[in-house]
């Protein structure tokens, strides 16, 4: 009986380890006013390394490619925001089940009743679960 229980526990742990190794996510990096990169990967480290490669290829120095977000699989929305005082930034909301949910998240992020200090707010990009940009720039 003990051998059966040990074998069962070992099997459960092995399946969990394999599942965790394949839990893709999306990494987004940005070099302010220079470049950016988006990649998916099995781990955050793998995805960030790939995104930094893309950021560098876009003309930035690797050290300027800042890690903005890492999210588990799903749809991701990049929301551009600009303060009435001038500074601007991006917020990333991810893990959505569909494009429609990601679009709704972008709209909610820009709710003028919630974000009264903004002069501009808009969805800048939506990424599918494979990291593909869905909006033309």
Report low-confidence residues grouped into runs of 5 or more. 1-22
What about the largest sheet? 3 strands, antiparallel
Name the overall outline.
globular
Order of helices and strands: HEEHEEEHE
- Terminal-residue CA separation: 62 Å
Structural class: alpha+beta
Which helices and strands appear, and what pairs or packs with what?
Layout: H1 2-21, E1 25-31, E2 35-41, H2 44-57, E3 66-72, E4 75-83, E5 88-96, H3 99-109, E6 118-127
Antiparallel strand pairs: 1-2, 1-3, 4-5, 4-6
Structure report:
The protein is α+β, with helices and mostly antiparallel strands. The protein has 2 domains: 23-73; 74-137. The protein is built from 3 helices and 6 strands, in the order αββαβββαβ. The protein has helices spanning 2-21, 44-57, 99-109; strands at residues 25-31, 35-41, 66-72, 75-83, 88-96, 118-127. The strands form 2 sheets. The protein has a 3-stranded antiparallel beta sheet with strand order 2-1-3. Strands 5-4-6 form a 3-stranded antiparallel beta sheet, covered by helices on one side. β1 and β2 (35-41) form a beta hairpin. Residues 1-22 have low confidence and may be disordered.
């Amino acid at each position: 009986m003990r051998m059966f229980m040990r074998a069962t526990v070992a099997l459960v742990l092995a399946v969990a380890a394999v599942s965790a190794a394949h839990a893709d996510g999306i990494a987004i990096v940005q070099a302010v006013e220079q470049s950016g990169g988006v990649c998916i990967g099995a781990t955050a480290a793998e995805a960030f390394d790939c995104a930094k490669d893309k950021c560098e290829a876009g003309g930035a120095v690797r050290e300027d490619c800042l890690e903005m977000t890492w999210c588990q699989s799903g749809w991701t929305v990049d929301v551009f925001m600009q303060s009435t005082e001038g500074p601007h930034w991006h917020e990333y909301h991810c893990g959505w089940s569909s494009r429609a949910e990601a679009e709704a998240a972008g709209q909610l992020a820009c709710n003028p009743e919630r974000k009264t200090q903004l002069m501009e707010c808009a969805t800048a990009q939506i990424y599918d679960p494979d990291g593909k940009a869905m909006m033309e720039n």
